[in-house]
């Protein structure tokens, strides 16, 4: 934010952020985790749209601050690459093992930071510490992260999104943060039951007064490990006799 010289040296003034890193023990709801993912991606969209673009190259739980209001801050740009130039002049390898994709060593792209963000989110949603990420690495390929078995209640679409984020080959990932963000926004994190009716429209025609008509409807839930909950109600019609949603004069619903 500001800098000045003194007789003893050079001073740099930076903003103090009252927030904890994602590496510190803390519990987030599934929707908060998605909110964090969205906000980090929005930061990456901003960085990638700059001229020249910026690649952080060291995204990990320790470099992400989140406060009590779920405001998100990406910090430590010491390893960042601006255009074709490094922020730091050293040629030493940059990044944190377990959070770097194969191409980062030679030719990082906009998809490079997505891999690191994907691994970070996997740590967050599985509860695996960043220092223990090797526990999820495939024995034959350390760039492959195996985590699906730890998330039985997480939606398959969100798991698929995470798996795309951490594909070892950058061509199999999202091309940039903007595409990853667009793909994430409509997704549910937790598995939500999906109601499937055998029939969506029923027509009844009586041949005589007082005749009782009956139809059976099969209801299925296509999402495993989820439970359908709810109740039947009869929608009001101006020609119906007085009734409540649960008690109608000539329409009834029975479960079998």
From TrEMBL:
It is an enzyme of class 2 (transferase). It catalyses: L-seryl-[protein] + ATP = O-phospho-L-seryl-[protein] + ADP + H(+); L-threonyl-[protein] + ATP = O-phospho-L-threonyl-[protein] + ADP + H(+). One of its GO terms (molecular function) is ATP binding. Its EC number is 2.7.11.1. Keywords: ATP-binding, Kinase, Nucleotide-binding, Serine/threonine-protein kinase, Transferase. The keyword tRNA processing does not apply. InterPro entries: Kinase-like_dom_sf, Prot_kinase_dom, Ser/Thr_kinase_AS. Residues 1-188 form the Protein kinase domain. Transmembrane segments: none annotated. The keyword Transmembrane helix does not apply. Pfam families: Pkinase. PANTHER family: SERINE/THREONINE PROTEIN KINASE, SERINE_THREONINE KINASE LIKE DOMAIN CONTAINING 1. This is non-specific serine/threonine protein kinase.
